[in-house]
Amino acid sequence: MTQTASAAKKTASTKAKAGTGVKQTSGPKKARTKKKQGQAFPFTAIVGQEEMKLSLILNIIDPRIGGVLVMGHRGTGKSTTVRALAEVLPSIERVKDDVYNRKVDQFIEMEKTTKGGKSLKPEDLTIEDIPVPVVDLPLGATEDRVCGTIDIEQALTSGVKAFEPGLLAQANRGFLYIDEVNLLDDHLVDVLLDVAASGRNVVEREGISIRHPARFVLVGSGNPEEGELRPQLLDRFGLHARIITITDVERRVEIVRRRREFDDDPQAFLKKWAKEQKKLQGQILDAQKLLPQITMNDDVLTDIARLCMQLGIDGHRGELTITRTAHAFAAFKGDKEVTMDHVREISGLALRHRLRKDPLETLDPGEKIERELAKVLGEAEEV
Amino acid sequence: MIAFTDIVGMDLAKQALMLLAIDPSLGGVVIPAAVGSGKSTLARAFSDILPENTPFVELPLNVTEDRLIGGVDLEATLVKGERVVQHGVLSKANEGVLYVDSLSLLDSSAVSHVMDAMSRGEVLVEREGLSEVHPSKFMLVGTYDPSDGEVRMGLLDRVGLIVPFTTQNDYRARRQILQCNIGDKDAEDTRDELRMLRGLIDAARELLPQVSMTKEQMQGLIQSALSLGVEGNRVDIFVIRAALASAALAQRTDVDEEDMKLAVKLVLVPRATRMPEPEQEEVQEEMPPEEEMPPEEPEGEDEESPADTPDSDAEEEQEETPDMIEELMMEAVETELPDNIMNISLASKKKSKSGSRGEALNNRRGRFVRSQPGEVRSGKVALIPTLISAAPWQDSRREERKRKTGRASKTALIINKEDVKVKKFRDKSGTLFIFMVDASGSMALNRMRQAKGAVAHLLQNAYVHRDQVALISFRGREAQLLLPPSQSVDRAKRELDVLPTGGGTPLASAMYLAWETAKQARTKGISQIMFVLITDGRGNIGLQASMDKDAPKASKDEIENEITGLAASVNADGIASIVIDTQMNYLSRGEAPKLAEKLGGRYFYLPNAKAEQIAEAAMSG
What protein family does this chain belong to (chain A) (predicted)? Predict the structure, then answer.
């Protein structure tokens, strides 16, 4: 996640308003708020729903893809899959106990601006490896917990205004997951849009003024029949995976069997799947290493641009996302060059939600993309 | 309090509760029943058959978010000088029962939290500087009267057992039986009966891990779910668990036909979206049962879970194929249940509201804009700003108090009245647009197209205003609610695709239906409602005729009177209206403007209206 450091360097600064000794809490506080989550069902044991699984994996390989929106029927394993994600994520380096999960250079840069020019050296800092954070944003979260707020205990005991970072800080360089994202309160959506666009969280309220880096892969899930997503938020998601009820009886029997096996003895089940989990993790790591070496021919780029144009997609986020996703997909497959075959596999994911929404259109967006893609490719072959 | 065993009738509901007591992972029981059927009495008696000291927490309908999820206990926090956490209702119900009476009236944000807790088994408290996880594994028991509206499908999806709704015609009789029965019995009998039942359930719970079903039975149940068009894969687990629990209750370790029938009745039928198709066999042949396992299975592992598919069983019961089981189940669905079951469950799905947001009336939620000085009792205390304003004065106040009282203050924090800040909320509240589209006569197709376009247009902007749209079409004998109040473009699309046109004009029926829909929306907190009536003529079918096809034909005057009466009621209820007249023939105009006048609404003459124009008229109206 190299992009986080450079962007945050430019923007991140922590300033204190005159006279109100604002400081940040760190270290011990973290331990208190640490959560114990229940055992998650293993990612690799989830039957079917390949679209969703692939989207998540591609986002691990390249977080710049911009997250996934998973929409589909009730009871099809949306949240199970996302919550299973944590177990296959690689780890990241951060300054020990840093509440913002910052890397060394980022930490030094930020602290320099706060502590009045006192510069830290990398040698002064301890580094630790932590698993990529997956932060759950529940629907009932209040804005102060999401953005961070004053530390009440410090305010009570010593009358000092101290900043206690929120979920956005915890999610920096990791994943932020919102189940039932289409039911999220408007004001939280506003906050998310703001932060997702700028990559930093600015808290200016109740006498506190703080800014800190908050770059995360946004993962949302929901059932489209419960309500629509705000178009601006929809556009923020890099990929859009759709999931449906599995109708094959054999596979459904398998789902039930695995679920019951897991419920009966989670430990044994996890052990049984440990090998698969390791394998996938290895695959992801390999893909991450391969990613910078992957090349893409200009012809492919032209075809992508034409596809987006013919589909009438506004802006350039479509092209950008499809290109990045195709790179990550090639890396996942172990291929060094992106071809239109790769593009074909992921174009639905990257573009489905960017087509102009016409409620009277009966053609499925996926089919429409496929059709236009065939046209683009057909022409390409003639030339 | 009336004991579980003393309640007469409601047999299916009782069975459902017993299955839940045996296997709490069934998630819950929802009991739809009419007023006076004794549903709440039964639900409250559920404790009787649970192990002692199982928590039984009732969720009040007016619960606030912080009471539901938990948060900072202000009083204790101020006294102790450190954060004191107050557990919410969801956490208090952990390892026990969460009971909601009138489940369909629970507001949508509370429903979302209950759903979230059920899928996680815990509550995430991320509020007011607090970040905690409280365990929250509970059985949800909900009762409601379907005439109050429906329960959100997303919530029902997490509840295993839904008791089929039967109209309780004989509720008075039942109440009599109940009363007689209690009179006859003495307390000791009741106690013995209860003890016996509890023993039975304890034994079943113990036996449950040993109960198994054949693979064919499992497939049969899953095929039944498919035939009935049940959405999602979660139900499979519920239907299988229900059958296993039923076998355990009968002290058997294998599942028989009756167990499966009960499971289908309680799990699948209430979620059915279609009747089983008659040409099932052909469909089955097209999909030969494949024996291949999904590719995700790890290699070299023993993939058979002994409890699920003992091979020996499968061989012994060779004659019982999944198809046969499914057929048996479908027969049970068709023959054993009362005739009206299928209709009601299908209808209730249609009626179910989606995406409702009842924020409009609640002034304690929505966006917390800022804090302002105020009385503690007048609103929600904004804790943090209050503390901030108090913090700087602590030293001086402590000294002052010491000077006055002669001893040091014990409280960690001295807060004066002027420190108190209360939260100021701003809330967005949407409008429900109810479209009534005249689908009768020759120009119906054109009007339908306009209406669809307008609905689409409004929905495109729905997120911004939190608006919802409902659509009623009227033709032939009666009006039909095509799209219940919704914000979902997907859903609107699906419902609007096929629409029949032509026939009579049951305008009164449409207005009545719209009025009913409006009243239901009001109970869920949507206060602004607008009727958009798109028509070119007058109603010619009376309300009587819409409800009863044998009713004598109403006269012109009677119909006119009905419409006038309805229009006045709508107007009196403060529902705004616009009437869009699409009559091409200029000369025969006159009915629509009159109607607009009666409704106290605005009138537009747009014979060739474009969808956008209609949408704009509705927005401006």
Answer: Belongs to the Mg-chelatase subunits D/I family.
